[in-house]
């Protein structure tokens, strides 16, 4: 069985949640659907509670990593798919692709190919790089690839690192010690909401700047405040102050 863990907070604003629910309900194969919802100011919780086949867990988790870990602990599947909350899986066959890949005992984790829902040359390049180059040479997959991992391995490494940002990078660094990621043939589609809101070039520059800050080991909480810039998509802070701190 594949357990799908969907971490949620204030998800209605980008319009993907109803599409994700419909997409998951149409997936083929043996599956368990778990949504972990932190306190939201919109109707995210109500929408999920009304969705058939979903187990909904209300959580006091304050970031995406914590929400994922709550879902992992509650799940029962041999493989756990960490579902990005603004990404659509390939229709109908995605979970079958995962199940088929994990029939090979050497496959420990996987992810799908990636594209954005906005047509722009830089975003096409970004998706190609993250689908082909980064997993091959760096063995890094971001969460918008909808990473799936064997439950036994998640237990071994202690789940998703409890970080406000770059939790997927650190997760990949831990997972790759047990083997490279298996890139599945299907393609996920991710909302380009940040690029639309801020502009493609500006957001791309922000992303690269944050990677430099990560390698300089700056404080993850401060980096995420800079990344969110009042959007508060993944983490809701008490205020919008941006104060650099050493890690």
From TrEMBL:
Function of the protein: Catalyzes the glycosylation of 4,4'-diaponeurosporenoate, i.e. the esterification of glucose at the C1'' position with the carboxyl group of 4,4'-diaponeurosporenic acid, to form glycosyl-4,4'-diaponeurosporenoate. This is a step in the biosynthesis of staphyloxanthin, an orange pigment present in most staphylococci strains.
Protein's recorded name: 4,4'-diaponeurosporenoate glycosyltransferase
Primary localization: membrane
Pathway noted in the entry: Carotenoid biosynthesis; staphyloxanthin biosynthesis; staphyloxanthin from farnesyl diphosphate: step 4/5
Domain Glycosyltransferase 2-like residue range list: 3-154
Compartment annotation: Cell membrane
InterPro entries, per the entry: Glyco_trans_2-like, Nucleotide-diphossugar_trans
Coiled-coil features, chain-numbered ranges: none
Keyword Transferase: yes
Originating species: Leptolyngbya iicbica LK
GO (cellular component) term, any one: plasma membrane
Record key words, sorted: Cell membrane, Glycosyltransferase, Membrane, Transferase
GO MF, one example: glycosyltransferase activity
Family designation: Belongs to the glycosyltransferase 2 family. CrtQ subfamily.
């Amino acid at each position: 069985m594949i357990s799908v863990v969907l971490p949620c907070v204030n998800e209605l604003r980008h319009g993907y949640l109803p599409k994700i629910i419909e997409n998951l309900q149409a997936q083929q194969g043996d599956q368990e659907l778990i949504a972990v919802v932190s306190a939201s100011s919109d109707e995210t919780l109500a929408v999920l509670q009304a969705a058939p086949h979903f187990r909904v867990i209300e959580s006091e988790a304050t970031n995406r990593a914590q929400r994922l870990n709550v879902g992992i602990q509650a799940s029962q599947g041999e493989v756990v798919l960490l579902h990005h909350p603004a990404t659509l899986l390939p229709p109908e066959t995605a979970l079958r692709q995962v199940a088929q890949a994990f029939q090979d005992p050497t496959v420990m984790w996987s992810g799908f190919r990636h594209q954005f829902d906005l047509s722009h040359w830089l975003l096409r390049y970004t998706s190609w790089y993250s689908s082909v180059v980064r997993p091959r040479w760096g063995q890094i997959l971001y969460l918008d690839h909808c990473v799936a991992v064997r439950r036994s391995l998640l237990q071994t490494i202690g789940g998703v690192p409890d970080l406000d940002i770059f939790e997927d990078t650190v997760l990949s660094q831990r997972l790759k010690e047990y083997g490279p990621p298996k890139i599945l043939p299907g393609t996920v589609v991710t909302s380009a909401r940040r690029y639309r809101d801020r502009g493609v070039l500006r957001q791309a520059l922000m992303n690269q700047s944050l990677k430099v800050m990560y390698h300089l080991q700056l404080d993850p909480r401060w980096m995420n405040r800079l990344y969110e810039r009042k959007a508060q998509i993944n983490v809701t802070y008490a205020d919008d102050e941006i104060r650099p701190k050493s890690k």
